[in-house]
Every structure is written in C-alpha cells, then in structure tokens.
C-alpha cells in the first residue's frame, strides 16, 4: 500500500479517491486555527489575514519558543477537540476554501455538509503526540493575531509529511465516527440481550 501524501495547494481532484479510515500525510502549509479565529471570521466578519485556499488548518494550541527578530520554533503542537468548532466549520470551509481540517475527535453534520459541498476533509491527528508533531514542522513562516495569545494565534507553518492523519470525514460527507456509532450500538444491544438472558435470575 503506497503512502498517501497531500501537498498544498490541494485541489478537489486530489481528494476524490480518499475515503474515511484512510491514512494520509501533509506537506506544505498548515495553519493553526482554533475557536476564536473561527468566531472572528464567521460571527464578527473579520477577514482572516492569511489565504487558506487549498491549504490546511489545525485545531491546535501550540507551545512556541520566541527566538526574537520574528523567529519562532514549535516546541509542541497537539490537537484540540474539533467538535468545539462544529457550528462554524461549514461556513468556514465555504468562505476560506480550506481543504484539510485537522483536529482531535469527530465532527458532526455541519462539517459533513461543508466537506461534501466544497470538497474538503476532516482528519484526526493521534492525541498524545504533540512533541512528535512538532518535529514535522520545518518552520513557522509567519504569525497573525498575536493579540489572542499563543494558543489562539494563527501560526503559519511549513510541514513535511505531517501525520499520520486519519480521515474521519471524506469529500463525500461520509463520517467514520457516526458510522462506527451505529455499528457499536448494534453490538451493544446484542451483548445486552445476551447478558440479560444469562443474569435473568437477578431480576
């Protein structure tokens, strides 16, 4: 099985054969973008100071070392819970043209619709690997909205084979978390029935 690497700028056709559960890696531009940045764009209508078309965002709050003279180094960059951005993500995808949304945990129907309509992916970066993730950041090219503080600033990073990234929502709107819920609940009910028969004497 060949290693799947997506390089920015990413086009719609680059995503057509990628399905939920696939593992990919990212090379190119990755911008940290969390709650407040989403809120500024969608609720406050403040344009983002960085062009995200064909690029990737990371729901993450990095730890960054300031070397002075606008030179920065990522020390740790772990994902934050993506569901916090759920109510904004469809509009965010539509307005920015972003192609990859990376974070922790699943997202819901709003993001599914955004990914399907505008051909984007949501991907999960494995939690607990923030220091390892930092080794894949070759440089911080620029930073915006520093008034928000280190975690919420927009850190524009150049990454090389950043990953592994697990596709949780594909460009057709399929959602691995929601599909797994159906399967797991089915198994849960089956086991409940089995256990109930075995312990019926308790009732």
UniProtKB/TrEMBL annotation:
Enzyme class: lyase
Catalysed transformations (reactions): (2R,3R)-tartrate = oxaloacetate + H2O
SUPFAM superfamilies: FumA C-terminal domain-like (SSF117457)
Keyword Lyase appears in the UniProt entry: yes
Gene3D superfamilies the record matches: Fe-S hydro-lyase, tartrate dehydratase beta-type, catalytic domain
Zinc-finger among keywords: no
Gene Ontology molecular functions: L(+)-tartrate dehydratase activity
Enzyme Commission number: 4.2.1.32
Pfam families in UniProt: Fumerase_C
Keywords per UniProt: Lyase
Subunit structure: Heterotetramer of two alpha and two beta subunits.
Protein name per the record: L(+)-tartrate dehydratase subunit beta
Gene name, Swiss-Prot/TrEMBL: ttdB
């Amino acid at each position: 099985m060949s290693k799947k690497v997506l390089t920015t700028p990413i086009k719609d056709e680059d995503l057509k054969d990628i399905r939920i559960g696939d593992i990919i890696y990212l090379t190119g531009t990755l911008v940290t973008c969390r709650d407040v940045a989403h809120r500024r764009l969608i609720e406050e209508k403040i344009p983002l100071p960085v062009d995200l078309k064909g690029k990737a965002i990371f729901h993450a709050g990095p730890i960054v070392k300031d070397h002075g003279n606008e030179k920065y180094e990522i020390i740790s960059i772990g994902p934050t819970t993506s569901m916090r951005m759920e109510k904004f993500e469809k509009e965010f995808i539509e307005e920015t043209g972003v192609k990859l949304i990376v974070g922790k945990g699943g997202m819901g129907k709003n993001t599914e619709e955004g990914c399907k309509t505008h051909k984007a992916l949501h991907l999960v970066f494995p939690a607990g690997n923030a220091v390892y993730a930092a080794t894949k950041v070759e440089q911080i090219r620029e930073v915006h909205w520093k008034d928000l503080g280190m975690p919420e600033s927009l850190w524009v990073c150049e990454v090389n084979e950043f990953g592994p990234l697990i596709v949780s929502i594909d460009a057709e709107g399929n959602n691995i978390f929601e599909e797994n819920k159906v399967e797991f609940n089915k198994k849960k009910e089956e086991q409940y029935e089995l256990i109930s028969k075995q312990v019926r004497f308790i009732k």
